[in-house]
Structure formats: C-alpha cells, structure tokens
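Input record (Table S2, row 442):
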Amino acid sequence: MIKSVVFIAFIAALGGFLFGYDTGVISGAILFIQKDLSLTNTEIEILVGAVLGGAVLGAFLSGGLSDWLGRKKLLICTALLFGAASIFTALSVNYIMLIIGRIFVGIAIGVSSMISPLYIAEVAPAKHRGALVALNQFAITIGIVISYSVDLGFAEIGSWRWMMGVAAFPAVVLLIGMFFMPDSPRWLIFHGFRDQAKVILTHLRGNEEAAEKETAEIETHIKEKARGWKGAITPWVKHALIIGIGLAIFQQLTGINTVIYYAPKIFQLAGFHSDKVAILATVCVGLVNVFATVFALWLLDRVGRRRLLLIGLAGMVISLIILAFTLRNDAHETGYLTLISLALYVASFAIGLGPVFWVLIAEIYPMGIRAKAMSLAAIANWGANLLVALTFLTLLDSLGSMSAFLLYAGIGVISWFFSFFLVPETKGLTLEEIQNKELHSL
Ligand code: BGC
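Output record (beta-D-glucopyranose complex):
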C-alpha cells in the first residue's frame, strides 16, 4: 500500500537528512574548532574539503557495494558508519583525528547520496516515484537547516563536539528503521529471489495481481537486458550516462553550495555587517530551500521532471544575474535585493536541478548497471562540489563577486540548453518502461 511505501521512503530519506546535516554543520563548527585547536586557514580549508573528498570516495564505493550487499544492507552499513564516524569526530583530541573522522563521515555521505534515492526508486510505484525519491532531497534541505540551528544553539557554549556528535541520533534511527524495511524487489529479482520479491511487492502494492504483473515485467526486463557494463552500452545507455554525469556537474557548477556553505559571507559582501544578521539571513535562505522543495514534491509527478528542470534553471540564471549586479563593487544598500535574489535562486534550484538530478539518475539506467551508473554520476557530483568549494573564495578575490556570479549564470545557460536537448520526460513510467521507451526512441 502507498502508506507503507511512504513510510519506507521516510526511513531511507534519513540518509538524505544526514547528508544535509553533516555538510551544513561545518559552517558554524569551524569558528570554534579553529579557536580550540588553533588552526591556520589552510588547515581549516583541508578540514572543510575532507568531507567532500570522503564523499567522492564513498560515491565510488557505493556502486559495487550496493550490487553486492543489496540496497537494504548497504543502507544499514551506512547508518553504522554515520553513527561511528560522528562519535569519533566529536571525541577527536587532535587535528589528525578530526580529519580522519570527517573523511569517514564524508564516505557515509557519498554512499547515502546515491543509495537512498536508488532504494526508494526501486520500491516506489511509478505514479508517485518522483515525489517519493525527492523526499530524500527534502530531507537533505531539512538536515541543512537543522544543522544551522544546532550550530546556533551550541554557539553559546562553543561546543563544536556536540554540533558534530548529535548526528549519531538520526543515524541510530536509520539503523533501527532499516532493519524493519524490506529489500529492494528489483535487486531480489536480479539475484534470482523471485518469490521473496513478489511477497514484498504484494504487500507494497496491496494487490497480488498488480504485484505479479510488476514482478513479471521486472523479470522480462532483466532477462532482455545484458548484465554489467559490457552488453549494456547501447545508444540509450550512452545517452543516459551523459545526462547523469552532465547534470551532476551542472548541479554543482551553477554554484548552489557557494550559498549553502558561504551564505553569511555573501550577505556580508552585500552590506549586512553584523554576524548575527548574516547568520539569520542564512537560516532564512535554508528555509526557502525547504519550502520550495515541498512544492517540488507536489509538482514532480504532475508537471514532470523535464519541465521543472527547465523552469528552475531559467529562474537560477535570472536570479544569478540580478545577484551579480547587486554585488558589484560600486553598488550601495543592495542588501535586501541580494537577500531576495538569493532566495529566488535557491527556490529555483529547489524546484528544478536539486531534486530532478537525484530523481533522474535513480530512474534512467537499466537494472544491470543502475547502481554503478548512479555511482559514476555521484562521483562527478561530489568532485564538482569539491572544486566549487575550494575555488569560490579565490574566485571572489581574483574576479570579484560580480564576475564570479556571472560565471555561474553562464554555466546555468549551458545547463539549460544541455537539458533542453538531452533530458527526456520520465513521469508516470515504470523503471522498465523508461528503458523500453528510450531504447526505441534512439
Ligand atoms: C545537492 C547538494 C546541495 C543540496 C542543497 C543537493 O541536491 O547535491 O550539493 O547542498 O542539494 O539543497
């Protein structure tokens, strides 16, 4: 029944929550870590980069592991890693321990970024798959806002250890929750456990006939399509790989994480000089991200992925251009215009490129290579994320804020054309129908 699928998606999306929390928490925590451990700016940059480097590694490991262990077991292992790495980081007695802890947190983030959407897509009914997979993106945005609020809460006592450590609680909920969740019926059929898969599908769809039909459809699809990379590289798969890797890179190079990681800094550039006001404005931007994502959940299975992606990208480009002009060197008193354009930018990301990228990569690949192809897209995404995080401050210094944001706007224009010419609509189709439809259209 749809109710149990929603519950399953909520539990799996805790992986997304931890992804959001653990990427967001560092922004506030570094202020105190720097003082406590007397770190230089370079050491801080390495600390911030550690989680992203770890995520690239996690994304790399996730493909093979999720085929070998299965989606459910890998989610359980990821929860264990999140919990253990959070506690290890919180108890670090020196810089090296802290870096090691953050690399392991990063590995967990990299794995969860692809396994949660993959697992949800494989249990969801076609009609609601967009919204259910995007629940993970929703959880990411909530994780980010909660991390900002936890940072604010613990700022009084300056405890970065608590900021890092509390992530162990949702990790335990994910761990316990996943024990009671079913395995992915598609993974089970792929490994020859047809009967087990049918029992799960009967429970999920609430109807034996529908379950038998879906089981048979998945089985035929798996038999028809070759397993592994070798036989899988058909024209459609090549096209789908370009879409996945392209959107992964564009999702980051259009600059979303300059806002998520550095919003207080941007607000200071725009004339909000008080730290408190800048952090408050950051929380507002985080909330816009959450609410716009709710809107996306509602629209994905109605308006479709492709249209939302194109509308969202257009909104991002327009707001980036306005933002660039509000941040030009001779601009005065543009603070509120900066706040509004940043909010518009984040809202446009949240209805388009944010959720659509993760939803599409969970549905456009055939079963035999789905996990590995998603892992490739996730590696590209985390690699591009690392690149933006490491170059943003240097770009601001060398090009100036106006040119930096115009550069992101230019990449947004390229992303729009890329999406317009390459991205298909997948709304309402089963994962197997997407393959059949696209294979025949190329
Ligand atoms: C992106 C993250 C980003 C988040 C913001 C995700 O889809 O992959 O890099 O921080 O959205 O909401």
